[in-house]
Amino acid sequence: MKYVSLFRQIPDYPKEGILFEDITTYWKDPEALAYSIKEIAKNFENKGITKVIGLEARGFVIAAPVAIALNAGFIPIRKPGKLPAEKISRSYDLEYGQSTLEMHKDAIEAGDKVLICDDILATGGTLSAAESMILELGGEIVGIAIVSELGFLKGRDKLNTKNIYALYQVQ
Questions:
Q1: Catalytic residue annotation
Q2: Which residues pair with 94 in a beta bridge?
Q3: Residue 113, beta-bridge partner list
Q4: Considering the chain, what is the average pLDDT of its residues?
Q5: Which of 71, 105, 113, 165 is at a distance of 20 to 30 A from 43, taking alpha carbons?
Q6: Tell me, what DSSP letter sits at residue 154?
């Protein structure tokens, strides 16, 4: 697994008992960052993707350059209070609490083919909330792309989208 040694794990973050998978050490390596973008884009090229969604905040790092590579638009899904126009929202459970995400109502149009990008798939709550909002607005989810999947948390099981591409899998 190319570059996986660049990840670091931080115990008891953001709360006791959580082993946090920190991807920032991976992204600071220019070759690893370029590799992740190229591999994700290559996996989803020629799929007719019109919008690439990035989930706040680390999903933005992957989604925007992947959108450029796929000649698609970039849409941010943000935490509450960050988007200025009319929006929809979803609350979801995390491994260590609960949170909410928001997206502009005009971000997705009926028939848009959407790729969702994020850094880590853990419990699946964040990605499931994104799926729900995209579908509500009439988008078709072509796939989900993540850099690392924490398979032991079984987050994939909570997702409706079955085309899930993970560069790395931690079992």
A1: 58, 95
A2: 97
A3: 140
A4: 95
A5: 105
A6: -
CA distance 104 to 92: 18
Q: How far apart are CA 61 and CA 72, in angstroms?
A: 15
Give percent of the chain with pLDDT exceeding 90. Answer: 87
Banded model confidence at residue 14, pLDDT cuts 50, 70, 90: confident
What is the mean predicted confidence (pLDDT) over 55-62? 96
Which pLDDT tens digit goes with each residue over 130-157? 999 999 999 999 999 999 999 999 999 9
DSSP annotation of 38 reads H
Q: Residue 163, SS3?
A: coil
Q: What are the DSSP E strand ranges found in the chain?
A: 8-11, 19-22, 51-55, 73-77, 87-94, 97-104, 113-121, 140-150, 164-170
CA separation, residue 122 to residues 46, 96, 111, 125 (Å): 28, 11, 29, 8
DSSP state of 60: H
Q: In sequence order, which residues have a C-beta less than 8 Å from that of residue 125 and are 6 or more positions away?
A: 92, 93, 94, 99, 155, 158
Threshold 0.85, pTM exceeds: yes
